[in-house]
Specification:
It is built from 25 helices and 23 strands. The protein is α+β, with helices and mostly antiparallel strands. Strands 1, 2, 3, 4, 5, 6, 7, 8, 9, 10, 11 and 12 form a twelve-stranded mixed sheet that branches. Strands 15, 16, 17, 18, 19, 20 and 21 form a seven-stranded mixed sheet that branches. The two termini are 64 Å apart. The relative contact order is 0.11.
């Protein structure tokens, strides 16, 4: 009975509640319409903040979703190796089997070889194939990393839905498992069972038959492989000459993906990675030797870390930068707070005009809760308008910043996550923006309010408004200073000499990828050398600052045996003069058909214990117990970005490892059209030599600039946020200047009557705001210095923080504030004093 009565009472109150809410919204709409300019400023500043939150949330939600859908994903690790100077996802070939045999706690181990996507795939013609639906020859090439050579344990670690077949298919040689979409790409739309037994040919040499079909993953992944060739195919084909599965000496990355495999493991439940890592180091001693003091370690990389860890630069995966993502999320919060601050500032400033309204409401019996509810309703209405405007701005903003937004990020208002996010941010913004002004209004005493004295004595709210202005300009100044300092570092990295020649050099990737056995790079070299517009050509494995890194363990036997982990550059006798590397001792390597001697850099000479570079010349370095003399020493040059210190380096001529051509163009005095013609001629020659290959080239100086893509994107984001923060702050400052000018209209008129000039009155109104900006600079300077200093810690080579940036930023902020405020100040100073005094 009691429950029934309460239920009936609640139903009876529904019309009253609905009427009350309708009244709140009607009054809110009238007040918003009465104060259009203030409303426009509030809505637009909130919309910019909310739009920033939506875009950044979309990016963060996308990036943090990669490979989070795998069962037991928290126990899956990639095995890699590293030292103080590098990290690699490559492992030595015997390691996976050693892990299986010797390390307890490892549940599953899988080994795979990654393709580089340049091997053409042919679909042979079948007599029963409808001609209108299928073609008899290839439809192009797979993209980078589309297929792998893997053992059947891959499907134990990573779960797939099998449409036809099972993982046992990969135990047979010359067998492939395809994803459903890949099978349709090759063979057209057929029932899954009809794909079994169909044939694929890789580079006209490796024939495999389809043994299973799996459903494509629907989640975002960094492992987008869609074709899996059986591991048993290696021993049964020409690939066995490339695998070297029992060779512990192959201890680093390199240009041939079939020499260095990769490995994933899944730990048993309850096993800590630290336990396994300790056992892995025992295996690691077999890589560099049991007596080596070199800091070489076998690493366990969590699956969730792969998408964000750019230290592993040899896995061809797109990396997100987690510090940048966290920075973006912080920026979104600050931008939203800036918009909220504008709303609070303008709302408390207008509270004087609403004092009598509040007094009347209280005198007629309205309570604090009713007044708070009324103001929160007004705030909610403004916030809803801001969210609607923000939603309309999202797609244009994403289009404007498309270069910085991953291609998989889309704004779909009907997505469940978006439908949850938009109401959530509406509620949060309403509470942030509306709670304090509602509390202030509800706290007015009715007697004082009706007398026009609603504002608190002592200027507490004016102090609050000043504090909020200082907060806004502090944030803006932090972004101004950080933007300038980041720009200085980027200029330093792009303009500093790298120690080798980079201008007018094009690097051309050669061959078909991991199945390339043609050895025709010399033919291509000669044909390109004969083209007009070409000055020099060199065969190489990498440019001095190239796409990847090959490391090898070398030993020097002197008074003490020294083990050196060095970067290896494969180049012939033309390599050093082609790039203008400076020989400081000894000579260049000589022409040879095999590796016979080394040239090292100054860092390697120091690591080997030589006080002078000349002392290293004539000494022997041992690789796999075979001695090679050091014939020269070159000056240090950068092999990677300025984040990494210069490493020990050896240069040697190893024929068969040249997978690139370095081509120097005769660009001086040439127009861009002539350079394009030269590149087109190179492509034609390339197609003559490699008819199924893809002509892939890059200008070396552009490649170096791309090394700092993350930093350049960070700088661009900071600049964009700086502009946005300044704009929002100036909107708030403009609104407050407008309010101040109206509030002091009588005072300004009296001063004019008493002889004050327009300049005097403008200076009177401006000086308070200038002081606030100077206070903001004092607060912002140490914060910006600290943030920049932390950012610069990632760089081994850096530009010192310039002192002149701080006063320059302050002067710029003061100028912006003066321009913003002066419009209203001069307008108020030029108003007719008689009209203002008459109205008073």
């Amino acid at each position: 009975m009691i429950a029934g009565r309460y239920g009936i009472g609640w139903r009876r109150d529904i019309p009253k509640i609905a009427s009350m809410l309708k009244n709140y919204f009607r009054i809110a709409w009238r007040i918003i319409g009465r104060n259009r300019l203030y409303t426009l400023i509030s809505v637009f500043s909130l919309a910019l903040g909310i739009c920033s939150c939506i875009v950044i949330w979309l990016v963060a939600h996308y990036e943090f979703s990669f490979d989070r859908f795998h069962p037991g994903g928290d126990r899956i690790y990639r095995v890699g190796n590293g030292s103080n100077e590098f990290k690699s996802s490559y492992i030595v070939p015997p390691m996976p089997d050693a892990i299986r045999r010797t390390i307890p706690g490892v549940e599953v181990v899988t080994t795979y070889f990654l393709s580089d996507g340049r091997t053409p795939v042919t679909v042979p013609a079948y007599a029963n194939r409808p001609a209108a639906q299928f073609s008899s020859k290839v439809e192009g090439q797979d993209r980078l990393g589309d297929y792998v050579i893997a053992d059947d344990n891959w499907f134990s670690i990573f779960k797939y839905q099998w449409l036809v077949g099972d993982p046992g298919a990969l135990r047979q040689p010359f067998t492939a498992v395809l994803t459903e979409n890949k099978a349709r790409q090759y063979f057209g739309s057929l029932p899954a069972g009809s794909y079994i037994g169909k044939e694929l040919v890789y580079q006209d040499s490796l024939r495999v038959r389809v043994g299973g079909i799996v459903k494509d993953w629907t989640g975002n992944t960094d492992l987008p492989y869609s074709a899996f060739i059986s591991f048993a195919t290696i021993n049964a084909s020409f690939l066995k000459d490339k695998r070297h599965m029992d060779d512990w000496a192959r201890n680093g990355g390199g240009p041939n993906a079939l020499i260095w495999p990769r490995c994933f493991i899944r730990l048993a439940k309850g096993v800590k990675p630290q336990q396994v890592s300790a056992s892995l180091q025992v295996i690691g001693r077999q890589v560099v030797g049991s007596n080596s003091a070199h800091p070489f370690r076998i690493l366990l990389q969590p699956l969730a870390d792969i998408h964000f860890n750019a230290d592993y630069g040899d896995d061809d995966m797109r990396k997100a930068h987690s510090p940048t993502l966290y920075m973006l999320m912080g920026i979104a919060v600050f931008i939203l707070i800036l918009g909220t601050v504008n709303f609070v500032n303008l709302s408390t400033a207008q509270s004087i005009q609403r004092a009598k309204e509040i007094g009347v409401r209280k005198a007629l019996g309205s309570g604090r809760s009713g007044i708070v509810a009324q103001f929160l309703t007004e705030t909610a209405l403004i916030t809803v308008l801001a969210v609607a405007m923000a939603a309309l701005l999202v797609r244009p903003v994403m289009a404007w910043f498309r270069e910085y937004i991953p291609t998989g990020v889309h704004f779909r208002p009907t997505d469940p996550a978006t439908l949850f996010f938009l109401p959530g941010i509406t509620v949060v913004t309403t509470l942030l923006a509306g709670f304090y002004p509602a509390k202030v209004l509800a706290g007015y005493l009715p007697v004082l309010s009706l007398k026009g004295g609603g504002e608190q004595k002592g200027g507490e709210k004016w102090l609050l408004r000043k504090s909020l202005i200082v907060f806004q300009f502090t944030i803006s100044l932090v972004f101004i200073i950080v933007s300038l300092l980041i720009g200085n570092q980027i200029r330093y990295m792009l303009e500093t000499d790298y120690g080798f020649r980079t201008d007018a050099i094009v690097t051309v990737r050669v061959g078909y990828g991991m199945f390339d056995t043609t050895g025709t790079i010399k033919v291509l070299e000669q044909k390109i050398r004969q083209l007009p517009g070409i000055t020099r050509v060199v065969r190489e494995a990498e440019a001095p600052l190239g796409w990847g890194a090959t490391f090898m363990t070398l030993k020097h036997k002197g008074k003490e045996d020294i083990t050196l982990m060095a970067m290896m550059d494969y180049g012939n006798e033309q390599y050093i003069p082609f790039y203008g590397l400076r020989i400081v001792a000894g000579r260049n390597i000589r022409r040879s058909d095999t590796l016979t001697e080394w040239v090292i850099n100054e860092t390697a000479a120091r690591r080997l214990g030589f006080g002078r570079s000349a002392d290293a010349v004539g000494q022997l370095l041992y690789s796999n117990d075979k001695a090679f003399p050091i014939v020269g020493v070159v000056a240090d040059f950068h092999q990677s970005s300025f984040k990494d210190p210069i490493a020990a380096e050896v240069i040697g001529n190893v024929p068969g490892f040249e997978h690139f051509l370095g081509v120097r163009l005769a660009s001086e005095g040439k127009s861009p059209e002539e350079v394009k013609k030269t590149l087109a001629a190179m492509e034609k020659v390339y197609k003559d030599v490699y008819p199924h290959g893809k002509f892939s080239y890059a200008f070396l100086d552009e490649f170096i600039a791309n090394l700092y893509q993350t930093e350049q994107k960070t700088a661009a984001i900071v600049r964009a946020v700086m502009v946005l923060a300044i704009f929002i702050s100036c909107m708030g400052l403009f609104g407050l200047a407008l309010f101040t000018a109206r509030r002091k209209a009588a005072e300004i008129s009296i001063r004019k009557v008493l002889g004050a000039t327009t300049a005097d009155i403008a200076a009177l109104l401006n000086k308070g705001f200038v002081g606030l900006v100077l206070l903001s600079l004092v607060i912002a300077a140490p914060v910006a210095w600290w943030l920049t200093e932390r950012w610069l810690r990632d760089f081994a080579y850096r530009e010192p923080i310039a002192w002149w940036v701080f006063p320059l930023a302050g002067a710029g902020a003061i100028l912006i504030a003066l321009i913003t405020v002066s419009f209203q100040s001069i307008r108020a100073a030029m108003a007719n004093p008689v009209k203002n005094l008459r109205s008073e």
